[in-house]
Design goal:
alpha/beta, DNA polymerase, domain 1, TIM Barrel, 14 strands
Length: 353
Protein backbone atom coordinates (compact mmCIF):
# COMPACT_ATOMS: atom_id res chain seq x y z
CA UNK A 1 0.00 0.00 0.00
CA UNK A 2 1.29 3.46 -0.92
CA UNK A 3 0.87 5.39 2.32
CA UNK A 4 2.22 8.66 0.85
CA UNK A 5 -0.65 8.95 -1.63
CA UNK A 6 -2.83 11.90 -0.66
CA UNK A 7 -4.27 14.73 -2.68
CA UNK A 8 -3.02 14.98 -6.27
CA UNK A 9 -0.30 17.55 -6.82
CA UNK A 10 0.37 19.65 -9.92
CA UNK A 11 3.59 18.18 -11.32
CA UNK A 12 4.41 21.30 -13.36
CA UNK A 13 4.94 23.14 -10.07
CA UNK A 14 8.11 21.10 -9.52
CA UNK A 15 11.66 21.78 -10.60
CA UNK A 16 13.67 18.69 -11.48
CA UNK A 17 15.54 18.87 -8.18
CA UNK A 18 12.25 18.96 -6.25
CA UNK A 19 10.81 16.11 -8.31
CA UNK A 20 13.74 13.86 -7.48
CA UNK A 21 12.82 14.14 -3.78
CA UNK A 22 9.24 12.99 -4.27
CA UNK A 23 8.47 9.46 -2.92
CA UNK A 24 7.70 7.74 -6.25
CA UNK A 25 11.24 8.45 -7.50
CA UNK A 26 13.24 7.50 -4.42
CA UNK A 27 13.40 3.83 -5.33
CA UNK A 28 13.94 4.54 -9.03
CA UNK A 29 17.17 4.99 -10.99
CA UNK A 30 18.58 8.50 -10.72
CA UNK A 31 17.66 9.37 -14.31
CA UNK A 32 13.96 8.49 -13.96
CA UNK A 33 12.82 11.86 -12.55
CA UNK A 34 14.62 13.63 -15.39
CA UNK A 35 12.89 11.40 -17.90
CA UNK A 36 9.47 12.35 -16.53
CA UNK A 37 10.43 16.02 -16.10
CA UNK A 38 11.48 16.19 -19.74
CA UNK A 39 8.32 14.46 -20.97
CA UNK A 40 5.93 16.79 -19.13
CA UNK A 41 7.81 19.98 -20.02
CA UNK A 42 8.12 19.05 -23.67
CA UNK A 43 4.64 17.53 -23.90
CA UNK A 44 5.98 14.41 -25.58
CA UNK A 45 3.35 12.26 -23.88
CA UNK A 46 -0.33 12.76 -23.07
CA UNK A 47 -0.03 11.16 -19.64
CA UNK A 48 2.17 9.04 -17.43
CA UNK A 49 0.96 5.78 -18.99
CA UNK A 50 2.14 6.95 -22.41
CA UNK A 51 5.67 7.87 -21.28
CA UNK A 52 8.20 5.43 -22.73
CA UNK A 53 10.42 3.57 -20.29
CA UNK A 54 8.11 3.81 -17.26
CA UNK A 55 6.89 0.66 -15.59
CA UNK A 56 3.13 0.30 -15.25
CA UNK A 57 3.55 0.39 -11.48
CA UNK A 58 5.42 3.70 -11.52
CA UNK A 59 2.99 5.19 -14.05
CA UNK A 60 0.07 4.26 -11.76
CA UNK A 61 1.83 5.74 -8.72
CA UNK A 62 2.53 8.98 -10.56
CA UNK A 63 -1.05 9.13 -11.81
CA UNK A 64 -2.36 8.81 -8.25
CA UNK A 65 -0.01 11.44 -6.85
CA UNK A 66 0.21 14.02 -9.66
CA UNK A 67 -1.84 15.75 -12.31
CA UNK A 68 -0.49 17.22 -15.55
CA UNK A 69 -2.46 20.41 -16.15
CA UNK A 70 -3.00 22.60 -19.16
CA UNK A 71 -4.68 25.96 -19.79
CA UNK A 72 -8.04 26.62 -21.40
CA UNK A 73 -7.86 29.21 -24.20
CA UNK A 74 -10.89 31.50 -23.83
CA UNK A 75 -9.92 33.73 -26.74
CA UNK A 76 -7.17 33.89 -29.35
CA UNK A 77 -6.68 37.13 -31.29
CA UNK A 78 -4.34 37.67 -34.24
CA UNK A 79 -3.44 41.12 -35.52
CA UNK A 80 -3.90 41.32 -39.31
CA UNK A 81 -1.52 44.30 -39.27
CA UNK A 82 1.63 42.85 -37.72
CA UNK A 83 0.87 39.23 -36.80
CA UNK A 84 1.00 39.78 -33.04
CA UNK A 85 -1.13 37.22 -31.19
CA UNK A 86 -2.89 37.43 -27.85
CA UNK A 87 -4.01 34.38 -25.89
CA UNK A 88 -6.56 34.78 -23.11
CA UNK A 89 -6.44 31.85 -20.70
CA UNK A 90 -9.26 30.87 -18.37
CA UNK A 91 -7.78 29.53 -15.15
CA UNK A 92 -9.22 26.76 -12.99
CA UNK A 93 -10.78 29.31 -10.59
CA UNK A 94 -12.46 31.26 -13.42
CA UNK A 95 -9.96 34.14 -13.51
CA UNK A 96 -8.26 35.14 -16.76
CA UNK A 97 -4.69 36.01 -17.71
CA UNK A 98 -3.03 36.87 -20.99
CA UNK A 99 0.00 35.86 -23.00
CA UNK A 100 1.21 37.80 -26.03
CA UNK A 101 3.24 36.34 -28.90
CA UNK A 102 5.37 38.87 -30.80
CA UNK A 103 6.89 37.62 -34.04
CA UNK A 104 9.94 39.11 -35.72
CA UNK A 105 12.14 37.94 -38.55
CA UNK A 106 14.19 35.61 -36.38
CA UNK A 107 12.49 35.88 -32.99
CA UNK A 108 9.29 34.52 -31.56
CA UNK A 109 8.96 36.26 -28.21
CA UNK A 110 6.39 35.25 -25.64
CA UNK A 111 5.25 37.80 -23.06
CA UNK A 112 4.18 35.93 -19.91
CA UNK A 113 1.89 36.90 -17.03
CA UNK A 114 2.91 36.27 -13.42
CA UNK A 115 -0.21 37.35 -11.50
CA UNK A 116 -3.93 37.89 -11.91
CA UNK A 117 -4.07 41.67 -11.64
CA UNK A 118 -1.38 43.68 -9.86
CA UNK A 119 -1.14 45.36 -6.48
CA UNK A 120 1.07 48.32 -7.49
CA UNK A 121 -1.41 50.51 -9.38
CA UNK A 122 0.67 52.29 -12.02
CA UNK A 123 -1.89 54.70 -13.56
CA UNK A 124 -1.29 53.71 -17.21
CA UNK A 125 -1.24 49.94 -16.67
CA UNK A 126 -4.31 47.82 -17.45
CA UNK A 127 -3.17 45.01 -15.13
CA UNK A 128 -3.13 47.37 -12.17
CA UNK A 129 -6.63 48.63 -12.98
CA UNK A 130 -8.00 45.26 -11.82
CA UNK A 131 -6.29 45.41 -8.46
CA UNK A 132 -4.47 42.38 -7.13
CA UNK A 133 -6.35 39.07 -7.20
CA UNK A 134 -3.75 36.35 -6.79
CA UNK A 135 -0.33 35.00 -7.76
CA UNK A 136 -0.03 32.50 -10.57
CA UNK A 137 1.31 29.09 -9.68
CA UNK A 138 4.54 27.98 -11.32
CA UNK A 139 2.52 25.53 -13.42
CA UNK A 140 0.26 28.33 -14.69
CA UNK A 141 3.32 30.31 -15.79
CA UNK A 142 5.09 27.38 -17.46
CA UNK A 143 1.88 26.28 -19.15
CA UNK A 144 1.69 29.60 -21.00
CA UNK A 145 4.83 28.54 -22.87
CA UNK A 146 3.75 24.93 -23.34
CA UNK A 147 0.25 25.77 -24.58
CA UNK A 148 1.38 28.41 -27.09
CA UNK A 149 4.10 26.11 -28.36
CA UNK A 150 1.59 23.29 -28.80
CA UNK A 151 -0.96 25.53 -30.53
CA UNK A 152 1.55 27.19 -32.85
CA UNK A 153 3.83 24.18 -33.40
CA UNK A 154 7.07 26.16 -33.36
CA UNK A 155 9.81 26.86 -30.84
CA UNK A 156 9.68 30.01 -28.72
CA UNK A 157 13.01 31.85 -28.97
CA UNK A 158 12.58 34.42 -26.17
CA UNK A 159 10.49 34.79 -23.04
CA UNK A 160 9.78 38.08 -21.25
CA UNK A 161 7.95 38.43 -17.94
CA UNK A 162 6.20 41.63 -18.98
CA UNK A 163 2.61 40.45 -18.95
CA UNK A 164 0.02 40.84 -16.22
CA UNK A 165 1.29 41.35 -12.70
CA UNK A 166 4.65 42.12 -11.12
CA UNK A 167 6.99 39.10 -11.47
CA UNK A 168 9.13 39.93 -8.43
CA UNK A 169 6.01 40.20 -6.25
CA UNK A 170 5.51 36.49 -7.00
CA UNK A 171 9.20 35.77 -6.69
CA UNK A 172 9.32 32.11 -5.63
CA UNK A 173 6.94 30.86 -8.33
CA UNK A 174 8.58 33.01 -11.01
CA UNK A 175 12.09 31.84 -10.14
CA UNK A 176 10.94 28.22 -10.30
CA UNK A 177 9.30 28.87 -13.66
CA UNK A 178 12.53 30.45 -14.94
CA UNK A 179 14.52 27.41 -13.84
CA UNK A 180 12.08 25.04 -15.58
CA UNK A 181 12.02 27.13 -18.76
CA UNK A 182 15.83 27.29 -18.76
CA UNK A 183 16.58 23.67 -17.76
CA UNK A 184 18.16 21.58 -20.55
CA UNK A 185 15.84 18.69 -19.67
CA UNK A 186 12.85 21.04 -19.54
CA UNK A 187 11.85 23.70 -22.04
CA UNK A 188 15.57 24.36 -22.64
CA UNK A 189 15.57 28.09 -23.35
CA UNK A 190 18.88 29.87 -22.73
CA UNK A 191 19.03 32.14 -19.68
CA UNK A 192 20.00 35.13 -21.82
CA UNK A 193 16.77 34.64 -23.76
CA UNK A 194 14.72 35.15 -20.57
CA UNK A 195 13.91 38.67 -19.35
CA UNK A 196 12.24 39.66 -16.09
CA UNK A 197 10.64 43.10 -16.04
CA UNK A 198 10.00 44.77 -12.69
CA UNK A 199 8.56 48.07 -11.53
CA UNK A 200 11.41 48.16 -9.02
CA UNK A 201 10.98 45.55 -6.27
CA UNK A 202 14.46 45.91 -4.78
CA UNK A 203 14.51 42.76 -2.60
CA UNK A 204 13.54 40.71 -5.66
CA UNK A 205 16.28 42.29 -7.78
CA UNK A 206 18.82 41.41 -5.10
CA UNK A 207 17.57 37.81 -4.97
CA UNK A 208 17.85 37.57 -8.75
CA UNK A 209 21.48 38.62 -8.43
CA UNK A 210 22.17 35.42 -6.50
CA UNK A 211 20.49 32.70 -8.58
CA UNK A 212 23.41 32.07 -10.91
CA UNK A 213 21.49 32.40 -14.17
CA UNK A 214 22.44 35.13 -16.64
CA UNK A 215 18.88 36.26 -17.25
CA UNK A 216 18.07 39.77 -18.43
CA UNK A 217 16.61 42.44 -16.16
CA UNK A 218 14.32 45.21 -17.34
CA UNK A 219 13.23 47.98 -14.96
CA UNK A 220 10.10 50.05 -15.60
CA UNK A 221 11.55 53.44 -14.67
CA UNK A 222 9.13 55.90 -16.39
CA UNK A 223 10.52 58.88 -14.46
CA UNK A 224 14.03 60.07 -13.61
CA UNK A 225 13.20 61.79 -10.30
CA UNK A 226 11.48 60.54 -7.17
CA UNK A 227 8.66 63.08 -7.13
CA UNK A 228 7.34 62.11 -10.55
CA UNK A 229 8.14 58.44 -10.14
CA UNK A 230 6.10 58.36 -6.91
CA UNK A 231 3.13 59.34 -9.11
CA UNK A 232 3.79 57.12 -12.14
CA UNK A 233 5.26 54.09 -10.34
CA UNK A 234 3.86 54.13 -6.79
CA UNK A 235 6.24 51.41 -5.55
CA UNK A 236 8.90 54.13 -5.74
CA UNK A 237 7.60 55.41 -2.40
CA UNK A 238 8.93 52.19 -0.86
CA UNK A 239 11.98 51.72 -3.08
CA UNK A 240 13.06 55.18 -4.29
CA UNK A 241 15.73 55.76 -6.92
CA UNK A 242 18.57 56.00 -4.39
CA UNK A 243 17.72 52.42 -3.34
CA UNK A 244 16.74 51.07 -6.76
CA UNK A 245 19.82 52.22 -8.68
CA UNK A 246 22.38 50.49 -6.39
CA UNK A 247 20.33 47.26 -6.56
CA UNK A 248 20.47 47.42 -10.36
CA UNK A 249 24.21 48.05 -10.22
CA UNK A 250 24.59 45.02 -7.96
CA UNK A 251 22.60 42.88 -10.40
CA UNK A 252 24.67 44.04 -13.37
CA UNK A 253 27.95 43.29 -11.62
CA UNK A 254 26.85 39.90 -10.30
CA UNK A 255 25.23 38.64 -13.50
CA UNK A 256 27.43 40.35 -16.08
CA UNK A 257 24.33 41.64 -17.85
CA UNK A 258 23.30 45.09 -19.06
CA UNK A 259 20.11 46.34 -17.41
CA UNK A 260 17.39 47.83 -19.62
CA UNK A 261 15.45 50.88 -18.40
CA UNK A 262 11.89 50.96 -19.76
CA UNK A 263 10.47 54.46 -20.07
CA UNK A 264 6.91 55.21 -21.20
CA UNK A 265 6.98 58.70 -22.68
CA UNK A 266 3.95 60.81 -21.71
CA UNK A 267 3.22 64.21 -23.23
CA UNK A 268 3.78 67.09 -20.85
CA UNK A 269 4.59 64.73 -18.01
CA UNK A 270 8.03 63.19 -18.50
CA UNK A 271 9.04 64.09 -22.06
CA UNK A 272 11.07 67.30 -21.63
CA UNK A 273 14.69 67.48 -22.73
CA UNK A 274 15.60 67.90 -19.05
CA UNK A 275 13.84 64.59 -18.39
CA UNK A 276 15.88 63.03 -21.20
CA UNK A 277 19.12 64.30 -19.69
CA UNK A 278 18.19 63.04 -16.22
CA UNK A 279 17.29 59.65 -17.68
CA UNK A 280 20.57 59.52 -19.61
CA UNK A 281 22.45 60.33 -16.39
CA UNK A 282 20.87 57.36 -14.58
CA UNK A 283 21.48 55.06 -17.55
CA UNK A 284 25.09 56.18 -17.78
CA UNK A 285 25.64 55.50 -14.09
CA UNK A 286 24.25 51.99 -14.55
CA UNK A 287 25.79 51.32 -17.94
CA UNK A 288 22.18 50.56 -18.93
CA UNK A 289 20.24 50.61 -22.17
CA UNK A 290 17.09 52.72 -22.51
CA UNK A 291 13.93 51.51 -24.21
CA UNK A 292 11.42 54.27 -24.93
CA UNK A 293 7.76 53.26 -25.16
CA UNK A 294 4.84 55.16 -26.63
CA UNK A 295 1.91 55.38 -24.22
CA UNK A 296 -0.80 52.85 -25.07
CA UNK A 297 -3.93 54.66 -26.23
CA UNK A 298 -6.86 54.83 -23.84
CA UNK A 299 -4.94 53.57 -20.80
CA UNK A 300 -5.33 56.71 -18.69
CA UNK A 301 -7.69 59.61 -19.61
CA UNK A 302 -5.41 62.02 -17.75
CA UNK A 303 -2.40 61.28 -19.99
CA UNK A 304 -1.62 61.55 -23.68
CA UNK A 305 0.93 60.19 -26.12
CA UNK A 306 4.02 62.20 -26.96
CA UNK A 307 4.12 63.16 -30.63
CA UNK A 308 6.55 61.61 -33.10
CA UNK A 309 8.84 64.63 -33.40
CA UNK A 310 8.98 65.07 -29.62
CA UNK A 311 9.80 61.38 -29.20
CA UNK A 312 12.63 61.69 -31.72
CA UNK A 313 14.04 64.75 -29.95
CA UNK A 314 13.84 62.94 -26.61
CA UNK A 315 15.63 59.91 -28.06
CA UNK A 316 18.30 62.03 -29.72
CA UNK A 317 19.07 63.94 -26.53
CA UNK A 318 19.65 60.64 -24.70
CA UNK A 319 21.77 59.35 -27.58
CA UNK A 320 23.88 62.51 -27.46
CA UNK A 321 24.94 61.46 -23.96
CA UNK A 322 26.47 58.25 -25.38
CA UNK A 323 23.66 56.05 -24.03
CA UNK A 324 22.21 53.22 -26.11
CA UNK A 325 18.54 54.03 -26.69
CA UNK A 326 15.78 52.50 -28.79
CA UNK A 327 12.13 53.30 -29.37
CA UNK A 328 9.96 50.22 -29.01
CA UNK A 329 7.84 49.59 -32.06
CA UNK A 330 4.21 49.30 -30.99
CA UNK A 331 2.59 46.04 -32.04
CA UNK A 332 -0.83 44.50 -31.60
CA UNK A 333 -2.71 47.74 -30.92
CA UNK A 334 -5.68 46.41 -32.87
CA UNK A 335 -5.99 43.35 -30.59
CA UNK A 336 -5.61 45.11 -27.21
CA UNK A 337 -2.07 43.75 -26.87
CA UNK A 338 -1.18 45.96 -23.90
CA UNK A 339 -1.02 43.50 -21.03
CA UNK A 340 -4.22 43.18 -19.06
CA UNK A 341 -6.58 45.00 -21.42
CA UNK A 342 -8.50 41.95 -22.62
CA UNK A 343 -8.57 40.26 -19.21
CA UNK A 344 -9.84 43.52 -17.68
CA UNK A 345 -12.71 43.56 -20.19
CA UNK A 346 -13.64 39.98 -19.31
CA UNK A 347 -13.56 40.82 -15.61
CA UNK A 348 -15.75 43.90 -16.07
CA UNK A 349 -18.27 41.81 -18.02
CA UNK A 350 -18.27 39.13 -15.31
CA UNK A 351 -18.82 41.69 -12.56
CA UNK A 352 -21.62 43.47 -14.44
CA UNK A 353 -23.42 40.20 -15.20
Amino acid sequence: MLHYMKKEKEILNYTLEELKEEPPFRAEPAYRAGQVFSAINRRTAAGFEAMPGLSQKLARELGKRFVISTLSCAEHLVSPKDGTEKFLWKLKDGNHVETVLIKGKARKTLCLSAQVGCRFGCPFCASGSQGFIRDLETAEIVNQVLCVRRMKKFRITNVVFMGMGEPLDNYDNVEKAVRIINHPEGIDLGARKITISTCGIVPGIRRLSEIGLQIELSVSLHAANNELRDELVPVNREYPLEVLIPACQEFSRAMGRVVTLEYTVIRGKNDSLKDAEDLARIAGKLGAKVNLIALAEGMDPKTDRTGHKRMQAFRDRIRSKKVTVTVRKSKGKDILAACGQLAAEYRREAVSS
